[in-house]
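Hi D.,

Good news: the full-assembly prediction came through. Inputs first.
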Amino acid sequence: MSALLEISGIGKSFGAVRVLSGISLAVSEGETLGLIGPNGAGKTTLFNVVTGFLRADAGQVRFAGAPVDRLPPAERAARGLVRTFQKAMVFPALSLRESLAMAARQRAGQGLRWLGARACHQESAARVERLLAESGLARHGGERMADLSYGEQRIADLLMALALEPRLLLLDEPTAGLSQAEAERLLGIVRRHDARTAIVLIAHDIDIVFNHCDRIAVMHLGQLLRTGTPQAVRQDAAVRAAYLGSLAD
Amino acid sequence: MRDIPLSRAAPLAAALLALALAPLLAGAFHLRFLAEILLLGTAVMSLDLLVGLGGLVTLGHAALFGTAAYAAAIAALHLGGNLFLVLGAGTGAALLMAALMGVAIMRSSHLFLLILTLLLGQVAWEVAFHWREVTGGADGLRGLPPLSLGPWRLDGPRALFLLSGGLALAAYLLARSFADAPIGRALVGAREQPLRMSALGYSIPRIRFRAMLAAGGIAGAAGSLYPFLNLYVGPQSVHWSLSATMIIMLVIGGVGSLWGAFLGSAIYLALQTYVSAYTDRWQLFVGLVFVLIVLLLPRGLAGGLTGGLAGSLAGVLSRRGRP
Amino acid sequence: MGYAIVQTLNALSFSALLLLTGLGLSVVLSLMNFVNLAHGGFYLLGSYVAVLWLGSGAPWWLAFPAAFLAAGLAGAVLERFPFRRFYARPHLMQVLLTYGLSVIMADLMRWGFGAQILTPELPAALQGVVFLFDMPFPLYRLFLIGAGVALGLLLWLLLDRTLWGAVLRAAVTDRGIVETLGIDTRHLFAAVLVLSAGLGGLSGALGAGMLAAYPGLDEEVLILALVTVVVGGLGSFGGTVAGALVVGFALTFSKVWFPEFANVVAFSAMAGFLLLRPNGLIAPPLRQI
Ligand SMILES: Nc1ncnc2c1ncn2[C@@H]1O[C@H](COP(=O)(O)OP(=O)(O)OP(=O)(O)O)[C@@H](O)[C@H]1O
Ligand SMILES: [Mg+2]
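Then the structure:
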């Protein structure tokens, strides 16, 4: 059985700085993969390459059996390869409900409709309300994104991604800056929403990664040091030296 | 959805009333003048779709308007002034031009977009200015047949006014529906957070292209009728300075409000017409008014009016809400 | 052969003018992120000052500093109010403000200097033609090329090689840090704007011998300068030089080869270029993501 996402031999440089070299990685349907590594390891850059926001210098990305290297980001997202950004990226002037509707309409293939607007709005409304209910943010549906708390904005950001019904969700430090409880809440929303969604989760909080992920990949200086089960990674000497150090003891 | 329906229905009713009353009250000169305000205002409103919703500041809008004007005039010269023929020819030509510009602006933004649209617009102007056999060159085209609809000739000031008013109203409703539809929301989203929109699966180039087509179609419809106000069309209707004038009108009226476009075009044309009767320095006046508005009312008169109104309303409500 | 050289020199002299005008724009754009559409007004002011000066009988070479000072003064006034408040505003608002001001300046100049075309009385030293390969070439244009190269070089040295330039570039990157060093960045930015305006006036003075001075010229020059800066990729010094050469040669040679449709060809070529390279010739590495 082939994997949902297959990355092979990805390389990327900015000028003379080599940020990714020879990264190969596979993610299968429904699994949760943790991606960890020190600051500047290249995790976000890998996301950017996989989702099409940056073009790789070398290597290939296949999604759901087809190469996607030449597709623009929007096209990849439309196929179910969905990401969030390291900084919460919301529409400050739109309400939470409108923001989610923006995503829901796109999922329904009605994002650019002009005629029949009323039907589109009604159709997306049901999906939006379900998401709001699932996340416990229903009370805030009418508030402007800019007026939400930071934790709520991060959840809203995630909900926009979930509204697309992704097959693979790439989450770039969704829990950064959140309390332990808020982080657990956010990850709970992801899991409850649809257990079949595959997830790649970047996080610096080791406990979160080890508790929530089936497998873990460790990056360091643009290279993939190791992939394996949480136990295996925890015990790996190279990983300890590079990153975990005394943290894991 | 944020607006209260009343706030939308009331101005619309007022506009309808004004459209109905003006032919009874105003004389021939003023009716023609109002018709010009309405047609230019319609074009400016279509520009607002690009600038106000999409943040796409173009300096080529006159090319859409003027292309339509020329196409309509040429069609009328050769085939007669049937209203639907004229509208069809002008709008069709503007849509073609808009498709070209839409492709051009897919990937650029900010100053690049400004200059790119300016260059394309100036190419259109050069063609209008130099292709004498077809466009009449610097002299433009005179002696157009009047507009007609079946047995009726639509060349009286009253007919022209009502025609322009009907067109402006239809265009306003169309633009409003565009702004409220998914495509309008997507255009706003693409302005606010382009990266997030791409990550949500929205194709920014496609959004921009469609916005340009919508704006071009509306500007084209207005441009088609424009030559028939004075039975003349000249190259200045394509020139970039008309594009700049449209931006001035839009800013005076209020970016993003749609109806402010009509206010802006009325104020600009009134300044031009009435101040120039007293002094040669009317451009100085326009410049001063414009700069003052940019300094004091960045959302234009429309924004100032509704902002002031909504602001004081909100103030009253919040005061009442407080314990 | 001679013809080709003369046309190349024509293009170069036009490029030199575009470079000087474009540099004034790009200096404030790259260093202060400020779009100044009133720059055409500074240019035309410089042209008028030079024409009047050259007609007055005063030493001719002082016309250029006089134009620099006059435009620089206008720039200083506008810098205090209202430019200064708009440095941190979005480009759209800057475009609107400065365009409005350019309309006002244009009408004031039409009022003050009249609506006719004014041509300067060039001093004997700059009049006449030289023969290159038996082809006559106006001496003034050679002077323009020299002035463009010299002033461009001077500006580059000033911004790239002096302490003042270094402080300036530091202030652009991080205003806060520079202020903690006790340097008032407001003065710094004001100085840059005055320099840019003065440069606009100086280009106007130099350009008057080639383009004369008349109402509307401000807009024509502004647009060409904008195209230059934009084609060059907004802001980098090398980009502006490249942009000036591209635009200067495109406009000159399209007139040679397609006299009927010169501008159509030149504008289409530039638009096509911007379609292929939406960020211009030399795009500063912008990190979007
Ligand atoms: N667009 C870019 N241009 C230039 N350099 C970049 C760009 N994006 C990333 N880099 C550099 O590439 C390296 C890897 O960055 P990246 O953001 O991928 O790291 P990361 O693993 O996500 O780190 P963090 O945990 O801090 O988010 C860094 O040195 C960064 O400065
Ligand atoms: Mg990162």
